[in-house]
Amino acid sequence: MSDMDWLTLRQLRAVTEIARHGTIASAAKALGLTGPAVTLTLKQIESALGLPLFDRTAHGMRLTDAGEAVRNTAAEVERSIFRLSDTINEVKGLGTGAVHVGVVSTAKYYAPALVVGFKHEHPMIDVRLTVGNRQEVVQALTDFDVDCAIMGRPPKTVPVEAAVFGDHPLIMIASPAHRLAGQIDLSRNELSGETLLVREPGSGTRTSMEIYLGDLLADPSIHFVEFGSNETIKQAVIAGLGIAFLSAHTVAVEIAAGRLVALDMEGLPIRRQWFVVRRGDKSVSPGARAFLQFVVHAGTQFLPHFPKLYEEASGE
């Protein structure tokens, strides 16, 4: 028997909670145990392994390399238990389970409606959403932290299987009072002298904008102001701070209400697509399989539609 054969799920969860909360007291509260009980559990694990799992610092308890290894193993065990539970329930015909979905921030405007539609068909399957920018969602896929992800462009750094489920138009928006609002067939050169409100590096929208602008990125008369969220950008554009390049799906409500307008600019809208993505080397739980199938077959009905944008772009 190795030193680790006796490790229990309870002990692994103790390490996970200490790492999450940074203190024994907070971890004990989360676990429903006393502080001394959690301290004893940690001492037993560290004694068996012959290595400290945490550094005790003024800012709380921080994982050592050995601690990181134990926490990662604990996460793998938890995922295996969830998959086992889903499989058993599927065999029993209970239709229960869980799915953890990564969602890029641009998709958060329709993702809740999509989940509601899914829950109507699968009320016993729990859905957890984790929202982040593209870089963060790709990292979640890389770390096996999510079962699948909704994003605008499948990553090339992770072995994935991807399926298209809808159009994803990208547009330039402005306040209705902006000088460019209402003009027709604008050239990209009209952006000279403008203030362009942009997402942070790592955002898929930022990458698409940079590709669209091309040489204009070096135009010294264009002032770029960076924001960390679509919501802040929308409010800044409405207030007249500048214009912005965003997904049409993030501004559907504001355009319909007349608070924002889509500029009629050459090369826009850019027609991208929405994908639901999963790791090709990760087993699929029944809950995740049901969600993937739902998104592929019904996802498009939860997307805002902008037929007028496409008519203008095609010259109809």
Automatic annotation (TrEMBL):
GO terms for molecular function: DNA-binding transcription factor activity; transcription cis-regulatory region binding. Residues 7-64 form the HTH lysR-type domain. Signal peptide: none annotated. InterPro entries: LysR_HTH_N, LysR_subst-bd, WH-like_DNA-bd_sf, WH_DNA-bd_sf. Coiled coil: none annotated. Pfam families: HTH_1, LysR_substrate. Keywords: DNA-binding, Transcription, Transcription regulation. Belongs to the LysR transcriptional regulatory family. This is HTH-type transcriptional regulator CbbR. It comes from Afifella marina DSM 2698.
